[in-house]
Amino acid sequence: MFSKRSIRRNFLIQLIFASASLIFIFSSFLYLYIESSIYDEKRLELLQHAKNIANNKSIVQMDMTTGPVDAFLNLDIEVIFLQKENTDVDLYEKTVDGRTYLTLLYPFDLEDLSYLQITKEITPTKQLLDKILNYIFIINIAGFLLVIIYAVTLSKMLVTPVKTLSARLSNMNENLMRPIKVEELPDEFEPLGTTINHLIARIQNFVKYQKELFIGTAHELKTPLAVIKLKNQVTLIKTRTPQEYIEALKITNKTIDEMNIIVSNILNIGRQEGAQLDKPIEVDVISILKQKANDFKLLAEHENKHLNISFEPSGFMATLQVSLLNQIIQNFLQNALKFTPEGKSVTLQSSQDDFGLLIEVIDEGCGIDDTVDLFAPFKRQGNKSGVGLGLFLAKSAADALGAKIKIQNRKDGVSGTVASLQLNSKLSCILPQNK
Questions:
Q1: Nearest-angstrom CA–CA distance, 389 and 378
Q2: Span 151-159, mean pLDDT?
Q3: What does the alpha-carbon distance between residue 224 and residue 252 come to, in Å, rounded to a whole number?
Q4: Sequence-separated (6 or more) residues with CB below 8 Å from residue 378
Q5: What is the pLDDT of residues 39-67, one digit of tens each?
Q6: What fold is seen in the domain 281-430?
Q7: Max CA separation in the chain (angstroms)
Q8: DSSP E strands: which ranges in 226-369?
């Protein structure tokens, strides 16, 4: 029914074994307690009779005020003599011809080493204990069967979410991917469902952009190659002066340089995929932002622009790949400074929200076209130079960090854009504020 690797099988075996052991131990203690209680009662009864007789120093002259005469009718009482003194009270059980007897040995007169030997038949009591043992055995069997039924039902209930996840994932391929409804899963499986949805989203983005990346790469490389070929063909049509050849070679070299930039950006995609496999470390994100601000502040001043900074809270610890975070912030600041005119400002700020840490880069540039997917490869905005892979790499890095990335126009009446990155706080903690 179940394979050796089945989670349900292992759970059933462990639950049944543990429950059977618990039932056996509990039943054993219960029977021993009942048996001990009954034997203690019989022992106290015989001990009381022995004290009665010993106090009267006579078997025939007993104090009948201590109990009815019938209490002594089922007793076999005799005085025996031992060779050595024994002050202890001995109690032992013996079976003769299928009848069980309980015998008490009690000191009667230590001067002549005489002792009372009181024997009482406890066959009915023994039979009662045997019945109790049989009943307990029957109850254990019934309880064990109920445990098996309960274990099967419980294991089925616990494995159902796993089977649901497995069925959903087994039916997926690169063309048919649907997020898992986390709200329908038990609380214990919610982190797993969230993680799977995050992976599905990354795969969907990869599938979505890979075709555009391949087509865009071929197009970006084919165009300069065609230009180079055409220039060479024109140059070879007729003999030219050395200076004209030099000018033609310069144009060719410039086109080759543009191709090298495209190839370098494509190589960065491979490097970033490798960086996503780096081990995350715990860092203070605010410190990284301050360091980036210092690096770009000099660049902004050199271009006659202003870089404003505002960081809240004073510290924010997060476990992530630092190289990916640096790539995103660097891309945001480079684009902001590229499209911001001279004399204008760029703002780098952070704030805490319900999701985690919100990092924003706000510029005073020309804004963006909201209908264009700027995160797609080779998508350019404005009249500035560039390959169009920066935001594609930033989006890929944000997905790897489990962060949210967004670019939108400013809504405060000023021309420009707001590039934002939201870091999840589930693996983060806020440093105490500096007093």
A1: 5
A2: 81
A3: 9
A4: 212, 213, 216, 217, 219, 220, 387, 388, 389, 392
A5: 888 888 888 888 887 776 555 444 444 44
A6: Heat Shock Protein 90 (3.30.565)
A7: 154
A8: 281-284, 306-311, 316-320, 345-352, 356-362
Question: How far apart (Å, rounded) are the C-alpha atoms in residues 343 and 347?
Answer: 13
Q: Which two tokens stand for residue 343?
A: 């004399």
Partners of residue 104 on adjacent β-strands: 91, 118
- How far is Cα 134 from Cα 128, in angstroms, rounded to an integer? 10
Where does the pLDDT of residue 424 fall: very low under 50, low under 70, confident under 90, or very high at 90 and above? confident
Q: Hey, where are the domains in the chain?
A: 7-74+120-145, 192-275, 281-430
pLDDT recorded at residue 151: 83
Domain 192-275 annotated CATH 3.90.960.10 = no
Q: pLDDT, tens digit, for every residue of 93-136?
A: 888 888 888 888 888 777 777 888 888 888 888 889 889 999 99
Predicted model pTM:
0.52
DSSP string, 28-40: HHHHHHHHHHHHH
User: Which residues pair with residue 428 across a beta bridge?
Assistant: 318
Cβ partners under 8 Å of residue 186, min gap 6: 161
Give the N- to C-terminal CA distance of the chain in Å, as an integer: 65
Cβ burial of 374 (10 Å; 0-12, 13-18, 19+) is buried
Strand, coil or helix: 4:
coil
Compute the distance between CA of residue 384 and CA of residue 382 in angstroms, rounded to an integer: 6
Structural contact between residues 130 and 38, judged by C-beta atoms closer than 8 angstroms: no
**DSSP state for residue 72 in the 8-state scheme:** G
- Quick: pLDDT tens for 214-244: 766 676 677 778 878 877 787 778 777 788 7
The identity of residue 158, as a single letter, is: L
Residue with tokens 């024109």: 234
Q: Is 424 left (phi over 0), alpha (psi -120 to 50) or beta?
A: beta
